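[Primary structure, fold]
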Amino acid sequence: MSEAVYLVAGASSGMGRAAALHLGKMGGRVVVAARRKAACAQVADQINADGGSAFVQQFDGTDPQSVANLVKWIREEFGRLDGAFNNLGDTVGEGPLHEMTQDRWRASLAVNLDSVFHLMRAEIPLMLENGGGAIVNNSSTGGLRGTRGLSDYSAAKWGLIGLTKSAAIEYAAQGLRINAIAPGITETEKFKEFQQNMPELFETLKTEIPIDRFGAMEEIAETVGWLMNKAPGYLNGTVIPIDGARTA
Protein backbone atom coordinates (compact mmCIF):
# COMPACT_ATOMS: atom_id res chain seq x y z
CA MET A 1 0.00 0.00 0.00
CA SER A 2 1.24 3.48 -0.84
CA GLU A 3 1.94 5.91 1.96
CA ALA A 4 -1.32 7.43 3.19
CA VAL A 5 -2.34 10.92 2.08
CA TYR A 6 -4.21 13.27 4.42
CA LEU A 7 -5.83 16.59 3.61
CA VAL A 8 -6.27 19.20 6.32
CA ALA A 9 -8.52 21.92 4.95
CA GLY A 10 -8.21 25.06 7.03
CA ALA A 11 -4.74 24.20 8.31
CA SER A 12 -3.16 27.64 8.55
CA SER A 13 -3.97 28.15 12.25
CA GLY A 14 -5.96 26.91 15.21
CA MET A 15 -7.35 23.39 15.30
CA GLY A 16 -6.42 22.77 11.68
CA ARG A 17 -2.80 23.66 12.30
CA ALA A 18 -2.67 21.43 15.37
CA ALA A 19 -4.27 18.55 13.47
CA ALA A 20 -1.84 18.90 10.56
CA LEU A 21 1.15 18.81 12.91
CA HIS A 22 -0.26 15.77 14.70
CA LEU A 23 -0.94 13.88 11.46
CA GLY A 24 2.57 14.74 10.31
CA LYS A 25 3.99 12.99 13.34
CA MET A 26 1.79 9.95 12.70
CA GLY A 27 3.31 9.41 9.26
CA GLY A 28 1.88 9.70 5.80
CA ARG A 29 1.80 12.76 3.59
CA VAL A 30 -0.11 15.82 4.79
CA VAL A 31 -1.61 18.38 2.40
CA VAL A 32 -1.73 21.65 4.34
CA ALA A 33 -4.42 23.78 2.70
CA ALA A 34 -6.10 27.11 3.43
CA ARG A 35 -6.51 30.61 2.00
CA ARG A 36 -3.35 31.94 3.67
CA LYS A 37 -0.55 30.28 1.76
CA ALA A 38 2.30 31.78 3.78
CA ALA A 39 0.80 30.53 7.05
CA CYS A 40 0.31 27.08 5.52
CA ALA A 41 3.95 27.09 4.45
CA GLN A 42 5.01 27.68 8.06
CA VAL A 43 2.96 24.69 9.18
CA ALA A 44 4.38 22.50 6.42
CA ASP A 45 7.93 23.60 7.25
CA GLN A 46 7.43 22.53 10.86
CA ILE A 47 6.03 19.14 9.81
CA ASN A 48 8.99 18.57 7.50
CA ALA A 49 11.45 19.73 10.14
CA ASP A 50 9.96 17.19 12.56
CA GLY A 51 10.58 14.40 10.07
CA GLY A 52 7.16 14.34 8.43
CA SER A 53 6.10 14.96 4.85
CA ALA A 54 3.95 18.02 4.06
CA PHE A 55 2.75 19.85 0.98
CA VAL A 56 1.14 23.29 0.67
CA GLN A 57 -1.92 24.21 -1.35
CA GLN A 58 -3.87 27.46 -1.33
CA PHE A 59 -7.63 27.33 -1.78
CA ASP A 60 -10.91 29.00 -0.84
CA GLY A 61 -13.52 26.63 0.58
CA THR A 62 -16.41 28.90 -0.37
CA ASP A 63 -15.43 28.64 -4.06
CA PRO A 64 -16.47 25.28 -5.59
CA GLN A 65 -13.93 25.58 -8.40
CA SER A 66 -11.12 26.30 -5.97
CA VAL A 67 -12.06 23.18 -4.00
CA ALA A 68 -12.24 21.10 -7.18
CA ASN A 69 -8.78 22.32 -8.18
CA LEU A 70 -7.38 21.37 -4.77
CA VAL A 71 -8.62 17.79 -4.98
CA LYS A 72 -7.61 17.57 -8.64
CA TRP A 73 -4.06 18.47 -7.58
CA ILE A 74 -4.13 15.74 -4.91
CA ARG A 75 -5.35 13.22 -7.50
CA GLU A 76 -2.60 14.16 -9.97
CA GLU A 77 0.14 14.33 -7.34
CA PHE A 78 -0.66 11.24 -5.26
CA GLY A 79 -3.49 9.34 -6.94
CA ARG A 80 -5.22 8.80 -3.61
CA LEU A 81 -6.76 10.46 -0.55
CA ASP A 82 -7.00 8.42 2.64
CA GLY A 83 -8.21 10.97 5.15
CA ALA A 84 -9.57 14.52 5.28
CA PHE A 85 -10.14 16.91 8.16
CA ASN A 86 -12.63 19.51 6.93
CA ASN A 87 -11.93 22.29 9.37
CA LEU A 88 -13.66 25.32 7.88
CA GLY A 89 -15.86 27.77 9.73
CA ASP A 90 -16.12 31.15 11.37
CA THR A 91 -18.57 33.55 12.96
CA VAL A 92 -19.39 36.47 10.68
CA GLY A 93 -21.36 38.62 13.09
CA GLU A 94 -23.32 38.65 16.31
CA GLY A 95 -26.80 39.83 17.25
CA PRO A 96 -30.44 38.82 17.48
CA LEU A 97 -32.03 36.95 14.61
CA HIS A 98 -34.52 39.68 13.68
CA GLU A 99 -31.66 42.13 13.10
CA MET A 100 -29.62 39.72 10.96
CA THR A 101 -29.04 40.79 7.37
CA GLN A 102 -29.49 38.46 4.44
CA ASP A 103 -25.81 38.98 3.59
CA ARG A 104 -24.66 37.84 7.03
CA TRP A 105 -26.90 34.75 6.88
CA ARG A 106 -25.59 33.76 3.45
CA ALA A 107 -21.97 34.44 4.40
CA SER A 108 -22.30 32.31 7.53
CA LEU A 109 -23.75 29.34 5.64
CA ALA A 110 -21.14 29.74 2.91
CA VAL A 111 -18.16 29.40 5.24
CA ASN A 112 -19.62 26.99 7.80
CA LEU A 113 -21.71 24.61 5.69
CA ASP A 114 -21.39 25.13 1.94
CA SER A 115 -17.60 24.92 2.13
CA VAL A 116 -17.69 21.44 3.67
CA PHE A 117 -20.28 20.31 1.12
CA HIS A 118 -17.92 21.43 -1.67
CA LEU A 119 -15.04 19.54 -0.04
CA MET A 120 -16.92 16.32 0.57
CA ARG A 121 -18.34 16.31 -2.95
CA ALA A 122 -14.77 16.45 -4.29
CA GLU A 123 -13.09 14.19 -1.71
CA ILE A 124 -15.49 11.24 -1.76
CA PRO A 125 -14.97 10.08 -5.38
CA LEU A 126 -11.19 10.01 -4.94
CA MET A 127 -11.48 8.05 -1.70
CA LEU A 128 -13.89 5.57 -3.27
CA GLU A 129 -11.43 4.89 -6.09
CA ASN A 130 -8.99 3.51 -3.52
CA GLY A 131 -11.45 1.49 -1.47
CA GLY A 132 -12.47 4.04 1.15
CA GLY A 133 -11.09 6.48 3.67
CA ALA A 134 -11.97 8.66 6.66
CA ILE A 135 -13.54 12.10 6.73
CA VAL A 136 -13.74 14.18 9.90
CA ASN A 137 -15.86 17.33 9.78
CA ASN A 138 -15.41 20.06 12.36
CA SER A 139 -18.78 21.12 13.72
CA SER A 140 -19.13 22.76 17.14
CA THR A 141 -21.05 22.51 20.36
CA GLY A 142 -22.98 25.30 18.65
CA GLY A 143 -24.29 22.51 16.42
CA LEU A 144 -25.62 20.65 19.47
CA ARG A 145 -27.26 23.50 21.35
CA GLY A 146 -28.63 26.94 20.65
CA THR A 147 -26.28 29.91 20.82
CA ARG A 148 -27.54 33.36 21.74
CA GLY A 149 -26.70 35.94 19.09
CA LEU A 150 -25.25 33.33 16.73
CA SER A 151 -28.31 31.62 15.30
CA ASP A 152 -26.79 31.65 11.81
CA TYR A 153 -23.63 29.92 13.04
CA SER A 154 -25.58 27.34 15.04
CA ALA A 155 -27.90 26.63 12.12
CA ALA A 156 -24.92 26.00 9.84
CA LYS A 157 -23.16 23.77 12.36
CA TRP A 158 -26.35 21.77 12.97
CA GLY A 159 -26.62 21.44 9.19
CA LEU A 160 -23.06 20.16 9.04
CA ILE A 161 -23.95 17.39 11.48
CA GLY A 162 -26.91 16.42 9.30
CA LEU A 163 -24.64 16.40 6.24
CA THR A 164 -22.12 14.20 8.08
CA LYS A 165 -24.70 11.65 9.22
CA SER A 166 -26.42 11.45 5.84
CA ALA A 167 -23.15 10.96 3.98
CA ALA A 168 -22.06 8.28 6.45
CA ILE A 169 -25.23 6.33 5.70
CA GLU A 170 -24.75 6.70 1.95
CA TYR A 171 -21.13 5.53 1.81
CA ALA A 172 -20.60 3.23 4.82
CA ALA A 173 -20.87 0.06 2.74
CA GLN A 174 -18.24 1.43 0.33
CA GLY A 175 -15.52 1.80 2.94
CA LEU A 176 -15.95 5.41 4.00
CA ARG A 177 -16.03 6.44 7.66
CA ILE A 178 -17.53 9.90 8.03
CA ASN A 179 -17.74 11.45 11.49
CA ALA A 180 -17.84 14.89 13.06
CA ILE A 181 -16.32 16.47 16.11
CA ALA A 182 -18.02 19.20 18.14
CA PRO A 183 -15.36 21.17 20.01
CA GLY A 184 -16.30 23.36 22.91
CA ILE A 185 -14.35 26.45 23.94
CA THR A 186 -10.79 25.72 22.82
CA GLU A 187 -7.66 27.77 23.34
CA THR A 188 -6.93 28.73 19.74
CA GLU A 189 -5.10 31.87 18.69
CA LYS A 190 -8.45 33.64 18.26
CA PHE A 191 -9.54 32.48 21.72
CA LYS A 192 -6.48 34.01 23.32
CA GLU A 193 -7.11 37.32 21.54
CA PHE A 194 -10.71 37.46 22.76
CA GLN A 195 -9.70 36.37 26.27
CA GLN A 196 -7.31 39.28 26.62
CA ASN A 197 -10.08 41.73 25.71
CA MET A 198 -12.84 40.10 27.81
CA PRO A 199 -11.20 38.26 30.75
CA GLU A 200 -14.27 38.44 33.01
CA LEU A 201 -16.51 36.87 30.37
CA PHE A 202 -14.14 33.96 29.92
CA GLU A 203 -13.92 33.35 33.65
CA THR A 204 -17.72 33.15 33.69
CA LEU A 205 -17.70 30.75 30.76
CA LYS A 206 -15.21 28.50 32.52
CA THR A 207 -17.63 28.02 35.41
CA GLU A 208 -20.04 26.36 32.95
CA ILE A 209 -17.50 23.66 32.09
CA PRO A 210 -17.50 20.72 34.53
CA ILE A 211 -13.82 19.95 33.94
CA ASP A 212 -13.09 23.56 35.01
CA ARG A 213 -10.81 24.48 32.13
CA PHE A 214 -10.87 25.24 28.44
CA GLY A 215 -9.85 22.77 25.77
CA ALA A 216 -6.39 22.51 24.23
CA MET A 217 -5.88 22.39 20.47
CA GLU A 218 -3.79 19.25 20.92
CA GLU A 219 -6.85 17.47 22.35
CA ILE A 220 -8.76 18.25 19.17
CA ALA A 221 -5.82 17.11 17.05
CA GLU A 222 -5.47 13.82 18.89
CA THR A 223 -9.16 13.07 18.40
CA VAL A 224 -8.91 13.83 14.68
CA GLY A 225 -5.86 11.59 14.35
CA TRP A 226 -7.65 8.77 16.20
CA LEU A 227 -10.70 9.06 13.97
CA MET A 228 -8.46 9.00 10.88
CA ASN A 229 -6.39 5.99 11.89
CA LYS A 230 -7.20 4.12 15.09
CA ALA A 231 -10.97 4.34 15.50
CA PRO A 232 -12.89 1.11 14.92
CA GLY A 233 -14.61 0.82 11.57
CA TYR A 234 -17.97 0.46 13.28
CA LEU A 235 -17.66 4.04 14.53
CA ASN A 236 -19.38 5.85 11.69
CA GLY A 237 -21.85 8.69 11.33
CA THR A 238 -21.40 9.96 14.86
CA VAL A 239 -20.60 13.30 16.50
CA ILE A 240 -18.04 13.47 19.29
CA PRO A 241 -18.30 16.49 21.63
CA ILE A 242 -14.90 17.61 22.94
CA ASP A 243 -16.07 20.09 25.52
CA GLY A 244 -15.18 19.05 29.05
CA ALA A 245 -18.75 17.71 29.57
CA ARG A 246 -20.32 21.13 29.02
CA THR A 247 -23.10 19.75 26.79
CA ALA A 248 -23.54 16.60 28.88
User: Anything to note?
Assistant: Helices lie at 14-26, 37-49, 64-78, 102-129, 151-171, 189-197, 199-206, 217-229. The mean pLDDT is 95. The radius of gyration is 17 Å. Residues 102-129 form the longest helix (28 residues).
